[in-house]
Amino acid sequence: MSCGHAYESLSLSPMELPFNFTKCLVLCLCLVILQIQIKGQRGCHEPERMALLEFKALLKSDGYDADHLLPTWIDDPRSQCCSWERVACNHSTGHVTRLSLSNTRQFDGLSMLDEENVWLLNMSLFNPFKQLRVLNLSFNGIGDWTDDNEEVSTLEELETLDLRGNMLSNRMISSLSGLASLTNLILARNQLKGSFPAREIIRMTKLERLDMSSNSLDGSISKQGFLYLSKLPKLKYLNLRSNLIGNKITKILGKLSSLSYLDLSYNKLEGSFLSHELLNLSKLEVIILQGNLLNGTLPVRELMAFPNLQILDLGVNNFNGAIPPYMGASLSSLKALSVVRNKLTGPSSIQGLCGLERLEELDLSENRLEGKLPQCLQNLSSLRLLDLSDNMLVGRVSSSLMAALSSLEYINLGYNQLEGLFSFSSIGNHSKLEVVQFVNNNDKFEIVTEDSGWTPRFQLKVLVLSNCNLNKITNAIPSFLLTQKQLRVLSLSHNKLKGRFPGWLVANNTKLEFLSLRNNSFSGQFYLPINSSMNSTWIDVSDNQLEGQIQENVGKLFPNLLCLNVSRNALEGKIPTSIGDIRKLEALDLSSNNFFGEVPKGLFAGCTDLQFLKLSQNGFEGEFFSSQYNLSGLRVLRLNDNRFTGSLSNVKFNSNSLTLFDISNNLLSGKIPSWISNMTNLSILNMRNNSFEGDTQCAPFSFRYVDLSHNSLSGTLPSCSNIQDIEQIHLQDNNFTGGVPTGFLNSSTLLVLNLRENKLAGSIPNLIGMLSSLRVLLLRGNAFSGVIPKQLCQLKSVSMMDLSVNQFSGPIPLCFDNITFGKMEPHLMSISEKSTHLDYSIGNYKGRNLLKRDFFIEETTDGSILQVEIEFVTKNRPSSYKGDILNYMSGLDLSCNNLDGEIPRALGNLSWIRALNLSHNQLTGSIPTTFGKLTEIESLDLSYNRLSGEIPSELTLLYSLAVFSVSYNNLSGKLPERKAQFGTFDNSSYEGNIFLCGLPLERVCNPGDESPPTPTSSMPREKWYENEVTVFLGSFIASFIIFFLGVITVLYVNPYWRRRVFWHGEELIFSCYFCVKDFIFFRLRDLVSRLCHWQ
User: Fold this and answer.
1) Arithmetic mean of pLDDT, 590-599
2) Would you tell me how many other CB atoms lie within 10 Å of the CB of residue 258?
């Protein structure tokens, strides 16, 4: 009988009291028990209290702030330890039963791994706790015990021991073997190595849960170890995640017949499914093999050996092929299935899962599944999580299918090839729905939310509708969002939505953490309400039409922001000083607006965590780089296209975290600072178009990308030995002298070498052939001389080569057809953009899920991408190439040199080249007919040479040709037929060739003007001007001497002719004199008359 019932039984009449004496005794006994319980709650045993105080004193002696961590642990007899934090007691006995001493030394993840922080713990401190059942010592950096190992065994009632996150070795596990009462042992994230510690845990016969994840165990075991494992009959839970375990582990696991939970994820398992030993574990309910090297088709038949299987995770492996059609019938007990990030294929694979009617979670994301969503998925009426993202699914999303899955909490169909119209109202009645993601890869999918007559029953936490033509007809923001009050993540980016900035979204959802409205057409003032969520960490409204100024109090409204991106709008004004109050701010992008003024000094004083700062393309001015700015934590700094002044000599960079540094297109001056050599992690350096001067050292060339072009740098280029990893060098338009240093030619990774418009001279070194990865070589506008070396032909990956405006001589190398010149190979790296990775992942959804899968949204800060720009003369004008077109542009420019000889026929094999310029040289011979194979060419310039013969009719097959010039040569014959592109060329393409005829020239072709047949190899074509120059000069001089002596002889013999010649000579001199005199006189008179008239 309970005390309550005994009390109720006392409500009797006086006549009944003698008969209830027994009941009164029961009531008294209950009161005594209650008093004991109350006393037990108020007190604790003195030895245990003293042991706790001794533990606190140990922390203090090691220099830790124990008073802050354990404020109620005080040495006062009136203070009962059962009420202290981290302590729990048995209410009946007053003994301590639970101690939660996790991270008592307050380490972060990195400092805990420092060997200097190893803690030698005195385990005898816990001897007084005779009834201790749970002891948590996780994340304390424990590396060893200070006392005898046997003393650990005094905790005879200990059931759970949590030692995760320490530095325990295999030797320490043996000291725990005396804890025979343990049922739960957690040794995750320690320093366990080598074989499985079967011997060390042999005496823990009651052990049910064992967690040794995140160590370095390899899974091997001795023969004796197999016998030990058979003495763990109760072990049900085994977690060996993130070790170095191979396939040998299966032999060990076969002995653990009671296992129901097995986690071998992120190990080194390989091949097909595990061996037959595993098939003996018929009680398995959970199998997690994620993150291994398993391959082959899905092992459905093998998995049938586990009739109770409920959770199966085979994600992040190499399984391929289609999902077997019998999988649904074979594994009917499954509740959760994940095969994420494999290589599954097949147009109807998903249909094989329609028989899994108990399934609650299905994740097939990041595969190669094709086809449409099968309608039979509506059989999965218990489905709560559906993730089919990152596949190749096509077709429409059936509204009836989605409506039938009424238990859904999580939907992700993003990154597919879906088409057609999807009505959002079809999931409006899903009252449990919390997460919805649709991010499409094409422009054929459309989501409509403005159906009339529906009101959502859900309260979403995560909504991502990106690039899905949201309300394409009206471009209106979804009105159902007015009813949502629990949103934590909202992304409506890339949808062309219009209207005023929806500040009400921020006001209604006070838990909002992530907001992305980028790349829409929102207009008006960028105003954030005063009652905004204080927990917001990410706000991105870039690529809109917002205007006005950023609120001065933005830092007060969002003190926990990690990222603020308002780039590519029409905002103006100065940077609010309150941004400096956002202590946790990591990324700030204000680029491509109309901001002006100086950058506030408090920005760097307050934002101590700032990693990414992009202020480019604004009107900022002043000396950004002053001693008052501490830029030590930055990883990306982009200040390009402003009006910043001053030098870099005073800037503070106390760390080497910087990876991208872009100050191009400003008014900076001075010398390149020496501190750049300290930036060991710097990858991209862009200082182009400033006024830097002086010479340059090797430091800038140790990075992957360096652009110092359009400055006033001088001196010789340094010969550096530490540039093996550089990819792009841009030094255009400076005053460098000397030759190309051999250090520049010692990099197998170099993609771009741009030395245009300097004062470099000498010949091209033969070592240039070692640049095996080179894609772009620009030497235009220097004074290089000599022959073009054949070693250039070894640069087989080059797509753009400019050797123009130099002093090269000799013939064009015959081997240029070895170079790709635009033929893109799969292994060639992109040169259009360089980036450093600055990704942010925000976990925002921790729903009830069997796969232990949290929601993550990943965003890449695109401001860390630097767009490469290269100048190249084509179509008779200088052009700048950037973006994707740079990867496909190709050209060869040898113009304005002293090259001679014939044009190699092999150049006609450059079928991918888009621009070829051989003008302003001394090339001879005919135009090769092989040029008719230059099918991709857009610009062909052969002007100002000595080419002869006719223009090959094969050139009319060049349908992409837009600019063509053979002017000022010695070409003859009839012009090609005016068809295709040749019908667009005018006289300027042919002028300076007096023997050419036909349209568009005025000279009409006559039968006698037809060009003679093309000479063959047996009948070479010769012209008078192609004879030997020495023979021609000799005959000319001899003829002139004979003529001159003949005239002198005649004048000497005949006096009459001599007088006539002298008389005519005098007349000619006087005539010329008066003619010049009259011309000058009349011109001066006319000029004076005009001046007077003007006055």
Assistant:
1) 94
2) 13
